[in-house]
Write a structure and sequence with these properties.
157 residues, mainly alpha, two-stranded antiparallel sheet, 7 helices
């Protein structure tokens, strides 16, 4: 009797990591009858003896973030469904109108991929926080006050 694979093999692990790196979700990979169940893959990831698989899986997830960024560009550049023909009651084309549903769906697809990319590779795709270089006036005044108070104190000699 054949069924889903449950035994860890390197070729199977490589296929899983390749598919993840190409942007496919673990859930969709594990729907494939030739692949192990998601719970099996998660058990492999938790197994201390499979640290090489864990490392390769983590690398595949980072590459997946780059795949998502590529997909975001494709989605944003694809305007094929952004406009639709507007027809009169008798079916005659009278112009074009924006297809709001398609545009909102594209925004959702881009936003989802952006969020995932930020989580998978935060140093590269996460929100940047600008730090102010130098000391703000409030902090400078506080430091001056502290230094002024300590200057008047006798030394511990």
């Amino acid at each position: 009797m054949t069924g889903r694979p449950t035994k860890f093999t390197q070729p199977l692990a490589d296929i899983i990591c390749e598919r993840i790196a190409d942007g496919e979700s673990l859930r969709s990979i594990c729907r494939d009858e030739a692949m192990p169940a998601k719970s099996t893959v998660l058990a492999w990831l938790a197994d201390d003896e499979k640290s090489a698989f864990r490392t390769k899986y983590a690398q595949a997830r980072e590459i997946q973030a780059d795949s998502f960024v590529d997909e975001m560009i494709e989605i944003a550049d694809d305007g094929t469904n952004d406009w639709m023909e507007k027809k009169s009651a008798d079916g005659e084309t009278i112009g074009w109108q924006e297809n709001g549903e398609a545009i909102r769906r594209s925004q959702l697809r881009i936003g989802t991929r952006q969020w995932i990319a930020e989580k998978l590779k935060p140093k590269k795709y996460g929100s940047k926080v600008e730090l102010e270089h130098g000391v703000t006036s409030g902090v400078a005044e506080l430091l001056d006050a502290i230094n002024g108070r300590t200057r008047g104190l006798p030394s511990g000699d």
